[in-house]
Amino acid sequence: MIAGSAMAMAAALWASAAGAIGGAAQPRQMGGVGITVYADAGFKGDNATFRSDQSDLGPSGFGNRISSLQVAAGEIWEVCANTEYRPPCQVFSGTETDLRRRNWNDRILSLRRVRNPGGGSALPRPPLPGASLTLYSDDRFRGSTRVITGPTASLGSFNDEAQSLRITGGVWDVCEDIDFGKCRTVDRDMSSLGALGLDKRISSVRPAFGRGGDGSLSPQPERRLVIYDGENYRGRARTYDSAVGRLGSVGSAARSVQVIGTWQLCDGPEFTGRCITISQNAPNLADMSNRIGSARPVGRR
Predict the structure, then answer these.
(1) Both 200 and 281 in a single domain?
(2) Contacts with 127 (C-beta within 8 Å, 6 or more apart), sequence order
(3) H helix or E strand, kind and range, residue 284
(4) How many domains is the chain partitioned into structurally?
(5) Is residue 112 part of a domain?
(6) Where are the beta strands (DSSP E) in 20-141?
(7) Which of 25, 107, 114, 140 has the fewest CB atoms within 10 Å around its CB?
(8) CATH number for position 138
(9) Are 279 and 261 in contact (CB under 8 A)?
(10) Same domain for 24 and 115?
């Protein structure tokens, strides 16, 4: 009986200590919903899973202590170097084994969900001060500039001029055509837009994933397809809001997709060959990887 009481007391003390250290965090839960952070690279060291926004990681013991992270499938999280989601910020999905590669090691002080599993938007939250996208007429952030803070259907005199861009928070669509046609999704600075095939080709810009340039919630489109050339929504991204009969090199590099609405993906051009219908995000396209020849929304128009 004495031994049993001692064991119960030890368990209660351990639970109390864990709650004090972890704050709103939960013990690491692989494959769960949320973002799991680690104190060391390679998913090692102290760790915790957060399922709600954290405006200040200090009380949890993870402020300026995160060196690797894992984001649940279908979710996108924004991390910031200051409390209260103040810039600079960066958006992450999938896994990051070593944040030194992204210049974010031991820099994160706040984090919040940008996108929920299955494609739903995050709940409204306080505006992100100063969020914007800046276009430059020359590469390496040189030349004349155009600052974007919200949806811009036409860049006017700056159409087809940009060669590089910088982002201060959020996720953005940069588009070849006016009125947001032929878009790619970006979440980081680009010293040369040639890497996206958009050098001197951008004509419109808008916040992506249902978030306004100021961090507030904006209307979500009925349908959207984002194709990534890496698994778990990583790598180069291309965004489509309407049918694409020939995806070319984008489809032949496809490894994962995120969707709003229901889409048909076909391994041949003009919706021929083997086709599948999906209405949920796919972190790994399996036997359709590197084989999407065309895509189109189906169902509600």
Answers:
(1) no
(2) 212, 214, 215, 216
(3) none
(4) 3
(5) yes
(6) 35-40, 44-50, 68-71, 76-80, 89-92, 95-96, 110-115, 132-138
(7) 140
(8) 2.60.20.10
(9) yes
(10) yes
Is pLDDT at 18 greater than 90 in this prediction?
no
**pLDDT confidence of residue 209:** 54
| pLDDT tens per residue across span 263-285 | 899 999 999 988 888 877 788 88
Same domain, 62 and 86: yes
Strand partners, 175: 183, 204
Q: Could you tell me if 83 and 109 lie in one domain?
A: yes
Q: Which helix (H) or strand (E) holds 82?
A: none
Shared domain for 42 and 113, answered yes or no, is: yes
**pLDDT at res. 116:** 57
Rounded mean pLDDT, 29-40: 73
- What is the mean pLDDT of the segment spanning 222-249? 82
Q: Is 10 helix (H, G, I), strand (E, B) or coil?
A: helix
Write out the two tokens for 93. 């999905």
> Which residue did the predictor score with more confidence, 42 or 84?
42
87-113 as b/e, with b when 16 or more CB fall inside 10 Å? bbbbbbbbebeebeeeebbebbbbbbb
* Token pair 């083997």: residue: 274
Last residue of a domain, one of 119, 144, 175: 119
Of the residues 119, 141, 176, the one at which a domain ends: 119
pLDDT above 90: residue 39:
yes
State if pTM tops 0.70. Answer: no
Angle among Cα 196, 218, 284 to the nearest 5 degrees reads 50
Which residue do the tokens 């390679």 mark? Answer: 42
Strands of the sheet containing 262-266, edge to edge, are: 275-278, 262-266, 294-298
Category of 261 on φ-ψ map: left (φ > 0), alpha (ψ -120 to 50) or beta: left
Which tens digits make up the pLDDT trace of 118-128?
444 443 333 34
HSE at residue 128, side-chain half, CA atoms within 13 A, is 35
